[in-house]
Amino acid sequence: MSGPSIHAVVNPAKVRRAARFRTIVDGALAARGLPPARYLLTTVERPGAGQAQDALDAGASRVLVAGGDGTVRMVLGALQGTGVPVGILPAGTGNVLARNLGLPRRLREAVDVALDGRPLPMDLLRYEVPGTGASGYAAIMAGLGADAAVVADAEPVKRFGQLGYMLAGLRHVRTRPVRTRVSVDGEELTRDASLVEVGNFGELLTGLHLLPGAEGSDGRLDVLVASPRRRWEVLRMAAGVLLRSNRIPQVDRRAGRSVVVRCAEPVPCQVDGDLIGAVTEIRFEVLPGAASVACR
Q: Which of 82, 116, 150 is the last residue of a domain?
C-alpha cells in the first residue's frame, strides 16, 4: 500500500524564491518521513483548477496551494466535494482567506499547519452569470459595484496596502448608485445601491469586518447592500463597519442559502479579488462543507 502523496499547486508569480520554498516544503516532508512533493505550477491559461485536478487524478492524499486568494479559490473549487484536504501556504498580497482562518503567514509555520493541521469542512460559494456561461467558485466573498471598482484600482492598493484599499473604497462607494434588486432565499429587496457584497467570510482587511456575522462553515451566505447618497452617509457607514455595528443607516443585511442580484445597468463584479467583468444579473449559492482545509 502506497504512503501519503503530497502535491503542491504553486503560483510562480507569487512565490518568488522558488528554491527556498521547495527546500522548506520538502524539508518538512522529509522530517515526517515523506517523499518530496510533486510541484504543479500555475500559468495564465491554467490558473490552478487544472493542476488541482491533475493532483487528484494522480492520487494526491493532500494538496498544498501556494499563491494568493485567486489561486486558492481555483484549487478549492476544483477539489470541492472530493474530501481531499487542502493546506494553504499564503503567498499573495491580500491572503484574506488565510487571515479569516487564522493561518500563519510565515512559510515554515504555514507548512507545519498545512501538513499536520486538522482537515475541517468549509463552505464554498458558487456563482453563475445567466446567459453567459460564466460560473465558478469563491471561498471568501463576491462584490458588485464599489468593491469591484476598488479591485480595478489596483495601484493605490498595491502602493499603500490596506490604507489604500480603505481610501479607494470610500471614494468609490460614493459613485452613482444603480437600481438593484437583491433576492435572498426568495425574499426580495430593492435599493439604489452602490455596493452589494455576498460573503462566506466577513473580514476583508485586518480589523475591517464587512460582514461581521459571516462564518465559513455555517451553511449560509451573508449579504450586505449599501445605498449611501451623501458624503456624510458614506462616513457614517464606514464608521459603523469599523465598529462592527449590526445597525447602520443605508445598509441592509441579509443571510440565506441562495442569492440573486439584478441590476438596472451593468456593474463591475469581483470574486475573491478577481474581476469577472460587468454584470446585470448574477446568482450565488452556498455549498455547505464542500471544501476540506487544514487548520490549526
A: 116
Half-sphere CA count of 257, side-chain side, radius 13 A: 4
Q: Does one domain contain both 218 and 75?
A: no
**Same domain for 106 and 193?**
no
User: pLDDT exceeding 90 applies to what percent of the chain?
Assistant: 72
Read off the C-alpha cell for 183: 433576492
Per-residue pLDDT at 273: 87
CA dist 164 and 155 (Å) reads 9
207 band by pLDDT with thresholds 50, 70 and 90: confident
Residue 269 forms beta bridges with which residues? Answer: 144, 277
pLDDT at 141 over 50: yes
Residue 288 pLDDT more than 60?
yes
In tens, the pLDDT along 228-256 reads 777 666 667 666 665 567 677 888 999 99
Q: What is the identity of the amino acid at 226?
A: A
Say whether both 275 and 157 belong to one domain.
yes
User: What is the spatial distance between Cα 11 and Cα 17, in angstroms, rounded to a whole number?
Assistant: 11
Q: What is the pLDDT of residue 160?
A: 46
| Whole-Å CA distances, 5 to 29, 30, 72, 192 | 10, 13, 19, 52
Q: How far apart are CA 9 and CA 177, in angstroms?
A: 40
Q: Is the backbone of residue 97 left (phi > 0), alpha (psi -120 to 50) or beta?
A: alpha
- CATH number of the domain that residue 244 is part of: 2.60.200.40
Residue 40 has pLDDT above 60, yes or no: yes
**Site of grid cell 441579509:** 254
The boundaries of the domain holding residue 30 are 6-116
Strands 86-90 and 258-271: unpaired
Number of domains in the chain: 2
Phi-psi region of 160 (alpha: psi -120 to 50; beta: other; left: phi over 0): alpha
